[in-house]
């Protein structure tokens, strides 16, 4: 493999070297959170976390654990930088996006440290491309302070039915209202569009509902425009967990199985639009 | 009104909505004792579609709303696209929806359409409606000289030969054959378009009765909906028509559904006349020019506002029995015995006060019979300089 012919000496200068036999395992996940141009990369010995934020009220994180990579070498405890995600995705797909059985793009991602570009070595069918993407000072990702102990309501659903629900959603509605309750309607997605209101109810005994743990009735509204990007992650996932905490902050966690069958996670946080106390 | 539709009937209902969506932008819901009627009228008022579902179609059917036991059933109209979006994907409805509940209630001022689906999922849609008296095209099919009846598949196969963008087709019938061809405006189009013509022998039809030779041209798009509906249920389609200028009625019936589409046809002189100068085609088909859809309003004598908003006439329906010429409105006013308020000759819906009704006879003399007019009136005038701004209909 051409990528492995790089001399050991060159590797010494990199603080991070990560290789993947199939770059799609990374690019698919990144595409799922690519609703903004810039992404913050946070790398630890555990793996890679890529963060995208919008309007200071929505945040998406993609987690790729170290063991997903064929090689993952990191010389520091924490590395953080910011890159243009659109450019990165273009590079990862530089050999074209077509999916042909048996052919995949191999990736070797290297980073020398603060101030250096992110270097990508991409190889497919014996052709090697080197991309160097400028890195920027990483912004501090928002800390939504979302912890399990504050979670009031949690459900885990099979993505299949939620995909249908989201595709049916009335996009003329500015908000998506989520009601979770130990009583009827249990789990309800509501929209208020031009032609009227629509409700999508899941019974707690539904066979699409893998887990139902709701302690109190909560109704929260979220801007549709902020949640819409999450549908990309939903499309890739097989299960999704929906949690709200006592402030109404929404956490969506998507379980994504990559091409090799390994599991990765994508997470969305969204702040509520307004407090709605009574059931509508 | 509240009703429940079960299982495979939901798809039938959805197909009716699809068929009506080809006709108009608004869907009238008309709950009656004899069943729930869905109706639509095209914006050019040249096409009408109605699907009547008898109470047997429903698992439950009640005119009274759940909360208001004594109030009369509400008749209303909703935006077609709102309802269509609920029934858009019929295959997924077939797969996952077990029951459909529809109710019209005033406290909420909403039409509620609820789908009870598999996996414990319930989808509820509350659509805003506008209270509106029902509209219905009154068409005396028993007076039509020509009647054809054929399996939907036959008619569907015939129209399948025409491109999707083909606006109008001409149905020519003689006692010896039936011919369908595409219609082009003027003569110029001959060199640019593919001309398709096909003929059928009377034996192909389940029923073939041609009382008089005729050549009618009507809008194809509006017809496809009902043909698709009939084909999916393997039902025969009946076609009632007469001379050019008279409406053509396509109907499909079975024990629980009665579907009717009435389309205006082009005036005879236009389909046979010398090539007219081409005008930029307005969005509505030219059939609207000579539209003579007799439209009746429901028994309560209330009117629906003309979509054009213009103060146009509603003329009494002239007799279709013979080749009488409709020239003067007085004539038509006098020939018709029925109270003018109940039968309407033109396609125009009008909000008439009682004073206007009284004036009708007097007013007739002052104006030529307006049978159909739409917003592109000026274009029409240029198109047919020989005429006045109104259109004559020959019977």
What would you note in describing this structure?
The complex is a heterodimer of chains A (280) and B (395). Chain A has 280 residues and is an alpha+beta fold. In chain A, 15% of the residues lie in helices and 45% in strands. Chain A folds into 2 domains: 121 residues, Box (Proliferating Cell Nuclear Antigen), CATH 3.70.10.10; 120 residues, Proliferating Cell Nuclear Antigen (Box). In chain A, helix 2 runs antiparallel to helix 6. The longest helix of chain A is centred in the middle third of the chain and has 10 residues. The model of chain A has no long low-confidence stretch (mean pLDDT 89). With 395 residues, chain B is α+β, with helices and mostly antiparallel strands. Chain B folds into 3 domains: 136 residues, Proliferating Cell Nuclear Antigen, CATH 3.70.10; 136 residues, Proliferating Cell Nuclear Antigen, CATH 3.70.10; 108 residues, no CATH class. In chain B, the strands form 5 sheets. A 10-stranded antiparallel β-sheet of chain B has the order 10-6-2-3-4-20-19-18-12-16. Chain B has a 5-stranded antiparallel β-sheet with strand order 5-1-7-8-9. Chains A and B meet through helix 4 and strand 13 of A and strand 9 of B. Chain A: One of its GO terms (cellular component) is checkpoint clamp complex.
Features:
heterodimer, A: alpha+beta, Proliferating Cell Nuclear Antigen, 6 helices, 19 strands, elongated, B: alpha+beta, ten-stranded antiparallel beta sheet, 9 helices, 21% helix, disordered C terminus, Cell_cycle_checkpoint_Rad1 (chain A), Rad1_Rec1_Rad17 (chain A), nucleus (chain A)
